[in-house]
Amino acid sequence: MSIIDELKWRGAVNQQTDEDGLGKLVNEKAVGLYAGIDPTGDSMHIGHLIPFMILKRFQLAGHRPYIVIGGATGSIGDPSGKKAERVLQTMDQVRHNQDCLTHQMEHLFGQDGSFKIVNNYDWLSKISLLDFLRDYGKLFNVNNMLNKEVVASRLEVGISYTEFTYQILQSIDFLHLFEAEDVQLQIGGADQWGNITAGIDLIHKQHGADARAYGLTIPLLLKADGTKFGKSEGGNIWLDPEKTSPYEFYQFWINTDDRDVVKFLKYFTFLDEDEIKHLEATVADHPEKREAQIRLAEEVTEFVHGKDTVVEAQHITKALFSGDVADLTASEIEQGFKKMPSVTVNADQKNIVEWLVDDTKIESSRRQAREDLTNGAIRINGEKVTATDVDIDPTSAFDGKFVIVRRGKKRYFLVRVTN
C-alpha cells in the first residue's frame, strides 16, 4: 500500500491538486514535503496535531518532512477561520512561542536528522517592500485572491491589507522550499486549500507549468455529534503537559465516543489495518470493555508524552477507580485531582471533626462530620477513618503537600497543605 493509499484508507485525504502526478512522485523518490504552523501560542493542541500526523506518516515511509514555523506569517496573522482581525503579538511573544513549538516538534519527530524545522522569518524578513511588490505582488491577481475561500469569507466584515497578503507570504514559503530544499508537496487542513493552490500557481509562474509541485489537504475532523474535534468541555486539549496534564490527556482519549473511536484510531495512531479492524470488532461486540478507547489513549499519549506517562496515567486511573490512592506520588496526585474540588489548609495537626468542618469545609457541621465518620463514609488518603477523637496530620503523606479526602463512594476532595 502506497503512502497515499494508506492516507485514503485512514480517511485523511480531502483534496489533491493532481492525484495521478502525486501518486507517481511518491513512488519515484523520497519526497520533500511540508506543513506549517504559526506561533500564535506557546503550545499546540490536538487539533493542530492532525496535519503533523500526516507528516509523521510520510517520515516513517522514508520521505523528507519539513516543518515551517511561521515566525513571519505568525506576526501578521492568518485570516483563515477567523471572523475578525487577529490581535498582533509582540515579536518577543512570537519568538517565545517559536521556541516552545520547536521543542514540541523535536519531541514528536525525533532528532535523527530525518526531518527539518525551518522558520519563514529567515527568508521573508529579507524581502524589501519594493522587492515584494515587484517580484511577487505582480504575479498575484487580486480578483483571484478575492475568490479564495479564506478571503471571501471575510469580505462581509472586512479584512485588512495585512491579512489579505497572507496567502502571498505563504506562497513564497512554498516557492522558497521548492527552490532551496526540493520540497514538492504541501500538507494542510481543508481551510488551507486556497493558500496551497496559490503557492503552486506561484511555482508554476516561476518555473513553468510542468514544475512538479503538489498540494494535499485533510478533511475537517468532526465528532459523531457534529461538533469540531479537539476540545473538551474545559477547552482545548494541549500538548504542553503544564496546560493539559498527561493524565487529563489520557482521559480525553479514554472517553472517546464509540462512534468516533475507530476514526480516531485511523487518524491518530500508527496501528496497521488488521489491528484496527480487530479493535473495530471489539467496539461492536464488547463495547463495555472499551478496548479500542484504551488502545487509542495508550498510543496517542505515548506518542505525545512518552511511555512512562502512559504507565503513570493508568496508575492514577486505577487508583481513582478503586479508591486506593495511598500509593500515588505527589506528582500523580497533582495530575489526577487537578479538576476536583480543592481547599488549602495549614500544616497544623487538629482533631479530625474540627478539621473537616472548620479547616476544609468538607462537612457542613460537626454533627454531620461525626455521623459520616462513624458510618464509614470518610476516607483519608485511601484509609477509612471511623473514630471522631483522633487528630489528623496533614503532612503525613504525599511529601507533605496533599491530603486526599473521599466522602461517600465518589466524592473526592484535594486538600493542599501550606507550611
Automatic annotation (TrEMBL):
PROSITE patterns: AA_TRNA_LIGASE_I, S4. A motif ('HIGH' region) lies at residues 39-48. It holds the Pfam family SYY_C-terminal. Gene3D superfamilies: HUPs, RNA-binding S4 domain, Tyrosyl-Transfer RNA Synthetase. Its EC number is 6.1.1.1. InterPro entries: aa-tRNA-synth_I_CS, aa-tRNA-synth_Ic, Rossmann-like_a/b/a_fold, S4_RNA-bd_sf, SYY-like_C, Tyr-tRNA-ligase, Tyr-tRNA-ligase_bac-type, Tyr-tRNA-ligase_bac_1. Residues 332-415 form the Tyrosine--tRNA ligase SYY-like C-terminal domain. Keywords: Aminoacyl-tRNA synthetase, ATP-binding, Cytoplasm, Ligase, Nucleotide-binding, Protein biosynthesis, RNA-binding. ATP binds at K231. GO terms for molecular function: tyrosine-tRNA ligase activity. It is found in: Cytoplasm. It catalyses: tRNA(Tyr) + L-tyrosine + ATP = L-tyrosyl-tRNA(Tyr) + AMP + diphosphate + H(+). L-tyrosine binds at Y34, Y166, Q170. It comes from the Bacteria. The keyword 4Fe-4S does not apply. Signal peptide: none annotated. CDD domains: S4, TyrRS_core. A motif ('KMSKS' region) lies at residues 228-232. Homodimer. Belongs to the class-I aminoacyl-tRNA synthetase family. TyrS type 1 subfamily. Catalyzes the attachment of tyrosine to tRNA(Tyr) in a two-step reaction: tyrosine is first activated by ATP to form Tyr-AMP and then transferred to the acceptor end of tRNA(Tyr). This is Tyrosine--tRNA ligase. It comes from Levilactobacillus tangyuanensis. The lineage of its organism: Bacteria, Bacillati, Bacillota, Bacilli, Lactobacillales.
